[in-house]
Amino acid sequence: MHHLLLKTGVAGICALAFLAAHGPAKAVSPLPLNQAAPLVVPVVDIENLTVEEDLRPDEPPEALMGEPPKKPMVAPPPKEMGGQSSGNIEDETIDKIVPGE
Length: 101
What we know:
With 101 residues, this protein is mainly α. The protein has helices spanning 2-22, 46-55, 86-97. The longest helix has 21 residues, at 2-22. The radius of gyration is 41 Å and the shape is elongated. The mean pLDDT is 75.
């Protein structure tokens, strides 16, 4: 019984191999790549684009146009501080938090 099943299986495999080797060749066209779904998806870095837009001014500065600027680029510091520098304020704050040092 085992020999009969083995002989039948071998004969079937040989028949399929003969048909595959001597049968008519079938041509298969490759898949069109332009219609297939892409493997990678392009990602736009929106954060980088917004930074570049901020760096690109809409209006060029007057200094680049050959004209002197009409107003100063940096505002002068306020006079309300009363002669204190930021270092004095920091020292006073530290003295309030940790007295005696």
